[in-house]
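Morning. Coffee machine broken again, so started the prediction first thing and wrote up yesterday's gels while waiting. Chain of 193 residues, entered below exactly as on the submission form.
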Amino acid sequence: MTFYPNERIGLFIDGANLYSAARGLDFDIDYRKLLEEFRKRGRLVRANYYTALLENDDYTPIRPLVDWLDYNGFSIVTKAAREYTDDNGRRRIKGDMDVEIAVDLIEAASYLDHIILFSGDGDFRKVVEAVQRRGVRVSVVSTLKSQPPMISDDLRRQADNFIELAELGRLVGRERRAREDFPAADAEDDDDA
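Came back before lunch.
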């Protein structure tokens, strides 16, 4: 990873996508370590975490994580998720945050030098290209090492740097907890990887 000490850095985390990628590599993200790691690499200006939440549930399994992130240095961007039943009768949750992330990336290009996008979603290729035209370097964090790989080839090629999540996991990961110990295990459903 190439970083410069005085560059202004922003983290943009597609929560559902990062969760799925880390789960595919069999570890959880330690978000405190994640912030510490990127604070060492430059001037961390922004750390956004994007997720959809079910509105009508008294308790949503992702809520403890979102609350912790909100109190510990992350800006939380949420919207209402839609619940539906798929063709096989399974309960599914749809909460695509692509537009919110894309808009924030374009706006952040005016005050950041380096954007770190935590997503492998190929839909972001065009917005990454637009941000790069404004002189901002873009690193994408995802994985080729899961089955199937979680990074779009188009997005990986467009990025200035590709950061393999399996490698970053050595610095910011922790062993996966059992489902009952980590309520966010099924909180997010990633439809776009």
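The longest helix spans residues 98-108. Going to sketch it on the whiteboard this afternoon.
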